[in-house]
Amino acid sequence: MIKKIIFFISFFMTCFLLSAANITINTTTGRQSISPYIYGTNQLMEGGENTTLYRLGGNRLTGYNWENNYSNAGSDWYHTSDTWLCSSNYGYGADCNQPGGLIRRFHQESLNAGMQSIITVPMAGYVAADQAGTVTVAQTAPSSRWKQVVPKKTSPFVYPPDLTDNYVYVDEEVNYLVSQFGNASTSTGVKFYALDNEPALWDSTHPRIHPTPCGAAELINRSTATAKAIKDVDPYCEIFGPVFFGFWAMNDLQNPSDWSTEKGSYQWYVDYYLAKMKQASDADGRRLLDVLDLHWYSEAREGQAPPFTYSTPGVCRITEDTCTSSAAQIARMQAPRTLWDSTYTENSPIAQWYSWALPIIPKVQNSINTYYPGTKIAFTEFAHGGGNDYSGGISMADTLGIFGKYGIYAATMWKTAYGPFHSAAYKIYRNYNGANGKYGNTKVYCESNDIANITSYASINGSDESELHIIVINKAGTNQTANVNITSGVTYTSAECWGFGGASYNITSRTAPTLAGNSFSYSVPAYSVLHFVLKSNVTPTITPVVSASNTPTRTVTQTPTIFFTPTLTHPTNELKINEIYIYPNPFLKNSDRAFLYYDIEGQIKSIKLKIYTISFREIQQIEFTQNLTGISEIPDDKIKNLANGIYFFICVLKDKDGNELKSRIAHFIVVK
Known about the structure:
Elements: H1 2-17, E1 20-26, E2 32-33, E3 37-41, E4 53-56, E5 71-72, E6 80-82, H2 84-89, H3 101-112, E7 116-121, E8 126-128, E9 133-134, E10 146-150, E11 167-169, H4 170-181, E12 192-195, H5 202-205, H6 216-233, E13 238-244, H7 247-252, H8 259-262, H9 269-284, E14 291-297, H10 326-334, H11 349-353, H12 360-371, E15 376-383, H13 390-405, E16 410-413, H14 420-430, E17 442-443, E18 445-448, E19 454-461, E20 464-474, E21 480-487, E22 494-501, E23 504-510, E24 519-524, E25 528-535, E26 545-547, E27 555-557, E28 576-583, E29 587-588, E30 594-601, E31 606-612, E32 618-624, E33 631-634, H15 636-639, E34 645-654, E35 660-662, E36 666-671
Parallel strand pairs: 1-21, 3-4, 3-16, 4-7, 7-12, 10-11, 12-13, 13-14, 14-15, 15-16, 29-36
Antiparallel strand pairs: 1-18, 2-17, 5-6, 6-9, 8-10, 17-19, 19-20, 20-25, 21-24, 22-23, 22-25, 26-27, 28-30, 30-33, 31-32, 31-34, 34-35, 34-36
């Protein structure tokens, strides 16, 4: 008790003494595209979050049979095989009676909501054959209660699939989705497939399917076979794997019997997996792993370390529903620092005994750079808990900012200890004003000198500096003064502020800051998240400085000398461009595809993409007329043949009456 009192006194004295933070922003440096897929979820929230990615995943998907829509609960619920996943969980009704009904309906609803999908395919060996309830130990696979999963079918695909054989084919499942929506190169196709779910736990979550621990080499063999089968059907999709359940799987895959012989000189299983998947990819002549898929449920316990008190009876883990003490709230708000901050030590066994692996994002990125360069990072389940109070909203907002700042490719929240403050954190980025106002798509340099109390993130849209978005998060129990100093090619003349925090998860308009040139000071309320929007009436000078995250030694810096300001005229049907950009940016030699993303109000008939050299000579013109739903793939021959350098682009929108609207000029960079 005395230690806790001392802790609280020291913490709150620190908050009192450090009541001001300096935030330094430079809109011309540190630019890097923010992946649109980091604002995803596994389950729908309150509404209005404008999430971008929807994952069909979790324990149930290991035993999901696409042919009959049956699945098995495993140890989550008496090893029951039933229709719960399709009928009760998603409520898809009659679709559950049709082969592929669940995956088809799921992806269609994703598209209807403006999201892309991650579809999880089975890889543990067997899926549910029936809906007959509990599977006993004696009925462990192989038995009549299961159908065997085979990655690749050697006979022609058919629909409906053969329900009388004893096999379920992964590639036939993918082919069904392609037949319904097109392949991943189209605007409606499934872009992402995940290789099952948490294989290091198969023997505990699904012992009736896979009763023994998944071997180190076994996971490689299953992953490569399944990835090949998927890409044989849809070569444009991206493969997520191996879906680690957390650090303990990343470290040694729960130490299966063959790990001691397979490990060799690899520090942890992440290195081994990346190296083996690269070897398999090189041998096959194509990439079999596009995205390293991680789950991150914070291991932090209430209280700050050192000393480490996580093993003390009564000390709770912050992801637990009942972990709501003041010490838990403080630990929760600080916990996202474990993702990136080498100066922070959380109260957890990972931090005490495996500190070499933290912070986790730089550690994983270093493994990727060493063993399989170009692989992207996804957190397809993550949580810090606390969704019913400010600490959950703050930790979620901080995490989303970290994902954008550190180049994470995809992220989907799992509703662990969920509450409306989690929803508010998404909205502060994706719908801060209730009118779909969004944080920018290009991060810029932004640093706080007091990250224990104030963290901050900043962004613009494309290369347009005329609108600057700043997220400021106050983790302290007292108001904090944020002194914001901005270096930019423009002078900001107006500002607004939106935020939530304290006892309320409702985002409201706040008093706008008073600008003094490109600086302002603002009293940030205790335990709050604010979103500042600064605007300039001056057309910005484009000075792109973009670092390529997957090739950290290569930095592209150029200052174009020719600028062009297109005329923006609004046609009679009220066309409006909210945002439009090319992704990825920069386009790297390892990038498989490029896309044009757009958020447009009004009905459009076509989009014409015009690409220019730095001297503003037009070199490419691409017209999109089909499936104009917010994303269009740029044909390979239009971008992969471009030489290294900076390119400008303009989009010309046309409505059904022939009225045109030109976008602002933007840029992208090619680095090969």
